[in-house]
Structure of ribonuclease T2:
Amino acid sequence: MLLTLQAAFTLFQITISGAVIDTFNNQEPLIQPYNALDCPIDIPLSCSNKTEVENSCCFEYPSGIFLQAQFWDARPSVGPKDMFTMHGVWPDRCDGSYDQFCRLFSPIKSARAILEQFGENQLLDEMDRVWKNIRGNDDYLWVHEFNKHGTCMNTLKPSCYDQGNYRENQNVVDFYKRSMQLFKTLPTYQWLAQSGIVPSNSKLYTREEIESSLEEHFGHPVFVSCRGNMLQEVWYFYKLHGSIVAGDFVPIDTVRASRCPSKGVRYLPK
Ligand SMILES: *[C@@H]1O[C@H](CO)[C@@H](O)[C@H](O)[C@H]1NC(C)=O
């Protein structure tokens, strides 16, 4: 199992990370397999342990609930017309409260500069398309997301990486990579459309219609948020099995209750 994981991870790195290409020149992998790959398979799910978990590089604590938040920005309209855009991946504590701007590691100034440095051009192209700031400066939003939320993910600490081979900001790259991977598994627009819920200037939806369509696809109740009566965000909840980099996000029910009106919800076209 360990081998399979390791092989899958290596493959993933070679496919996605331009930085790893350097490894072929000096034979030695530039980025060693992440220590978290050595995590025991029977590590408990985050926020579900009955006893202390020693290796915190394998276990997210104290923030073990994760949300993948997506925007529907119709006024003003931002991003592809048939897609909810990426807001971020946030860690919550097990009781639903949350930490932010943690000091586990240093804040960054430009996500774009770091991703360019690592040769992550494909990832950057994807982020440019779907990780949009309604105020226009996407890098500003990406930086904010890492500094506010990413810094509270303890398995992303530089000390969780193989020190001989850790390249500064690899954890930052991993944060964006894993966030985008998770986002891509959640095609909110298509899920709603399959239930006949499509953007409209005139049609009104009930909150329940929207919630049950998304629950059907995600397998668990999700959180929908509105601005006034306009649908504005969808949040999907997870616990984590293992580390951010190599672990599995396991879907759970929303831990928050929606405050969207129960009837007359607008889902406006972009
Ligand atoms: C779960 O693990 C964390 C980290 O080791 C520990 O601090 C916490 O007390 C554990 N929770 C329970 C209920 O034992």
Summary: Residues 2-16 form the longest helix (15 residues). Confidence is low (pLDDT under 50) at residues 1-35. The pocket of 2-acetamido-2-deoxy-beta-D-glucopyranose is lined by residues 49-53, 61 (CB under 6 Å). The domain at 7-266 is CATH 3.90.730.10 (Ribonuclease Rh; Chain A).
